[in-house]
Amino acid sequence: MPEKMSTMHIRPLTSLLFERYQRDGFLLLPPDFLSSGVLQDAIALMPEILRSDDPSRVLERDNATVRSVYGLHRTYPQVHAITRHPLLLGAVEQLVGGGVYVHQSKINFKAPFSGDQWEWHQDFVYWLQNDGIPKPDLVNASIFLDEVTEFNGPLTFIPGSHRRGVLSGKLADGMPAGYEDAPAWVSTLTAEEKFNVDTSVIDDLARTNGLVSPKGPAGSVLLFHPNLLHASAPNLSPFRRTVLILVYNSVANTSGGVANPRPPFLADPDVRALRPLVPTATEGMPR
Ligand code: 6CS
Ligand code: FE
């Protein structure tokens, strides 16, 4: 049962789940955490999102397969509504400790047979170095739009690694191979990580803390810390592994400004605190 409801926002995480996130750096919530309408709304949008020939769409190294599309909460009202789902927003506020806005949203498609890797990395260093976000007071919320199995390139974590702080600030220079003519901001979105964490660090931490790949049916929600070490292998299976990732940031942790701001679809300049969708007389609880 959710803890006592605050006047404004629901606090759906029990103290057990809250502490598990603090310990491991991630939390996998079952599909019934969000109403099924959320999943249907997001899935219904995918054909349109895939067709969008927009700078926010990043292709794989094969220059044909769609890797990711960014800024969806700005483009599609249905996605913006998902960011305000009372249980999702309430859980994120509990973990951040206050009001939040969406810094970045994306769909990672991880297409069948051709969805490429994400090398070992931490996310926060990208938002620190590229967007001037001062502290790791963010939460990644990954909503599984397909079933995630051991076969279709699941996210793999090193549990507890979020407590080691920023493990790499070394920016690999130049544009990744195949993206030489792309805008500079594409460099941190491809299969070649720009802030590479040294394999000796991965080796050491994986041996002490182990490796975990949270798997689950479509509709599952995976919350994870911006300093948690993670990677995912190419998808060699015939099964798609699409996830919608919402990056929530504390409204008390906004950027102090950077010399070359990234486009709004990568770093949203609208930092107003999100309010939960409320049941309306006609529609009842949001989908
Ligand atoms: O540069 C970024 O914002 C993105 N890059 C990576 C590797 N993860 C975080 C984020 O989605
Ligand atoms: Fe990442």
Automatic annotation (TrEMBL):
Residue ranges that the Swiss-Prot or TrEMBL entry lists as coiled coil: none
InterPro entries: Phytyl_CoA_dOase-like
Name of this protein: Phytanoyl-CoA dioxygenase
Any one GO MF annotation of this record: iron ion binding
UniProt lineage: Bacteria, Bacillati, Actinomycetota, Actinomycetes, Streptosporangiales
Keywords, sorted A to Z: Dioxygenase, Oxidoreductase
Gene3D superfamilies: q2cbj1_9rhob like domain (2.60.120.620)
Pfam families: PhyH (PF05721)
Organism: Actinomadura litoris
